[in-house]
Amino acid sequence: MSELRVEHRRLSLLGKIIRVVDDGETHATPGMLMVDPGDAAERASVTADARALRDQQQVNLDERYSGGWAARPTSDGRDAWAEYVARRSDPVERQRQARNDYLRWIYEHTRDNTLAVADHFLEAGLTFLGDPYAMEDLTRAGKWLADRGLIEGPGADQRPDPLRVGLTVKGEDLVESGRELHSEAPQAASTSYTFHAPAQVAHNSPNVVQMQTNDASKGAVEIAAMLDQLTAILVPDEARRTGEFAAQLREEASGTARSSRFREIGDAVMKAFGTGLGGALGSAVSTHTNAWLGTLV
């Protein structure tokens, strides 16, 4: 199981603990949080996740000699849950991820040159930050991919997306290249990966980056904002290190703004995210950071 999926599962447990306490209980016990209180394997998994949340200082955990325990959320835990919920509610990021997940799912289910049944995607257990995809996610993703010539298949008047679906040559090439949509797009694409900061990857080019300021300090603050977004999807140790990069960039930008220090921090960011950490978001951060480093004098 991927680290991100484990983190989503733990955050979902944190949300359950918060709901139990907010509903009036003094604390949450394993039996309140489990689907089947008699399932030993589920109990062991829930207990391990509760201990991980305790280690991250997101819950206070009172363990008993009997093997039972009681959990209450900390203020850090409530903050982490609120941030997680806000990120799951971002419709733009949800659609971007749905398109990537759907494209790869089609690739994996049409290897024998048959068409896949589109609605079966919703039965695959795929989620956006732990929240299962809905029919609206599927139809919007299918229409977007079909409009851009990445998938094809017969449809119906009442649906905007193909009902039975397969990849086009263009879609298959995209998946097999290892690229993700909205990150480093191929030359013919008309999409871009846009952060909630004043910088974005240039349209129609994987190699050109538009930075909306030539000021080194402002560029540093832009990259810090991108790093802040990444912390929401990384496991705790990686998120902590990413947050430190953001803080260092802001500190230097608000102080002496030394090019040598900016380069030192930028090189560390490149080293961290040039290896694929953070997926498409991490790749875009790496691209932006590299462009910013090139502007330093």
From TrEMBL:
This is Uncharacterized protein. It comes from Microbacterium luteolum.
